[in-house]
Amino acid sequence: MAVRAVDRLIAGYVAFITLVILVLGSLFDPGNWLLLGVHALIAVLLLLFARLESSDRVGQVLHDIYPLLLLPVLYSELGMMNVRLGIVETFARDAVVQSWEAALFGGQVSYEWIRSAPSVFWSGLLHLAYLGYYPIIVVGPVMLIALGRRTDARRVLLATMVAFVACYVVFALFPVAGPNYAFDHPVGEVREVWSAQLVYSLLASGSAFGTAFPSSHVAATVAATLALWYVYRPLGLAVVIPTILLVISTVYCQMHYAIDAAAGLAIGAAAGLVGTRLGD
């Protein structure tokens, strides 16, 4: 069976991160050897998919959705790498991004917005919208597969993965902690609303350090939404408003600098275009 575009993308990304670990990391660190072992397993998986028979329906579905299953692994390893490469250095890059933020927007939007315009309603809604990232990038492709539109699902997944990979390459070379780490958290009712509590709980257990700029939350969601709009308009239409709210939420809820969201928006738009044109 022919190798798909998303397979080549993931293989290239894993090779790049392997090189980063070998050049910047310590070979005496057992954690780095663990990451290299995971990369070897991913390489084996890709080789197995390359030999997959077209008659193997279960294998074909797994081949369709495996990028989603790999995302937690690829995301988590970035946090491990960035902590090993230096927390102090990462916060120094935050200072650089904050200077860009001040130059472009006249201040620190992510810090000031929720404090200058506190709203329990908007905090509750936007923290909930922030979580919309997960169903948008997962449910869309799964629904397309369930509808028998596997080619369309692969286009959406390729667009999403192009966005992720573009962001992840930056995270590996220019890790930035982001306002969730760099600034004090908001206090009061805007912080205590249930959806905010849920977001902070999830971040405490699953956030990868150094993955703020650009916002992969924004990039992947925008790419998936544009691709869904292109391949199957009803699904694309259903996620437009949640996507807009998510983009706003990343800044209002102090998860990303405004410049993170802007960069993510640009990457997502480009990835959506690439994925729908090259998806197979």
Concise account of the structure shown:
The chain has 280 residues and is mainly α.
Question: Would you write up a description of this structure?
Answer:
- This protein has 280 residues and is mainly alpha-helical.
- It has one domain.
- The chain is built from 14 helices and no strands.
- It has helices spanning 5-24, 30-50, 57-85, 87-105, 109-116, 120-130, 133-146, 150-173, 179-182, 189-192, 194-206, 216-231, 233-252, 258-278.
- α1 (5-24) runs antiparallel to α2, α1 (5-24) packs parallel to α8 (150-173) and α8 runs antiparallel to α12 (216-231).
- It is globular.
- 41% of the residues are buried.
What percentage of residues falls in helices of 4 or more residues?
A: over 70%
Mean pLDDT: 92
Counting H and I runs of at least 4 residues, what is the number of helices?
14
* Overall body shape: globular
Distance between the termini: 12 Å
Regions with little confidence, pLDDT below 50 for 5+ residues: none
Topology:
Elements: H1 5-24, H2 30-50, H3 57-85, H4 87-105, H5 109-116, H6 120-130, H7 133-146, H8 150-173, H9 179-182, H10 189-192, H11 194-206, H12 216-231, H13 233-252, H14 258-278
Short key terms for the protein model shown above:
single chain, mainly alpha, 14 helices, 280 residues, globular, 80% helix
